[in-house]
Amino acid sequence: MRVVWVFLGVLAGFLVIPLLWAQGRSAGRVRGVEDVPANDVALVLGAGVRWDGAPSRILQGRLDVARDLFRAGKVRRIIVSGSPESRGHSEPVTMANYLLSQDIPQESLVLDESGVDTYSSCRRAAEEHGSLTVVTTRFHLRRSIALARRLGIDAYGVGHDAAAEGLRRVNARATRREHLATIKAFWLPR
User: Fold this and answer.
1) Which end of the chain is more exposed for a tag (fewer CB within 10 A), N or C?
2) CB 55 within 8 A of CB 19
3) Does the pLDDT at position 153 exceed 90?
4) Angle at 40 between CA 35 and CA 44, to 5 degrees
5) b/e burial code for range 52-70 (CB count within 10 A of at least 16 → b)
6) 159-180: pLDDT as tens digits
7) How confident is the model at residue 189 (pLDDT cuts 50, 70, 90)?
8) Mutual angle of helices 168-187 and 2-26, in 10-degree steps
9) Phi and psi for 41 in degrees, rounded to 5?
10) Which residues 6+ apart lie within 8 Å of 115 measured at CB?
């Protein structure tokens, strides 16, 4: 019986410690457009492109947050980071085109096609930026900030609220996935 309790304790630690890590590394750094500190750069993390080449609803929400940060004077440049091949489309090109349609100037956009996952996007940003504002969906924000900080970036984050936009099922599924991704990010650092 004692072995079972030890096993359950180790398993609980294996599952809980990464969540505490993400919570602790992002504490006080999850903000809104109004109260995030001004920064030179926003890093928008990709979230898929529809078959017709338009941003997915989740991605559009993230891009709208970046647009709002830019218009509020909170950032001067926006890095759009994603996969070069998302359903036959470049995610960063799709993201840039959407922001251009929202009157964000071309010279304020930086495309990063090496962002095939959150770690890769943050690692690439860390090569050139010591601080930035991460823009993603709320369920993804804490891990993103924690990863950016692990890589030496002084990161704050602003999240899009997918649940409030009618994407409750997507938000619930993604939140469950995010727990597993946080465990992976903690225990398997690259």
Assistant:
1) N
2) no
3) yes
4) 80
5) eeebbbbbbbbbbbbbbbb
6) 998 877 777 777 677 788 898 9
7) confident
8) 110
9) -130, 140
10) 45, 46, 81, 82, 83, 91, 92, 121, 124
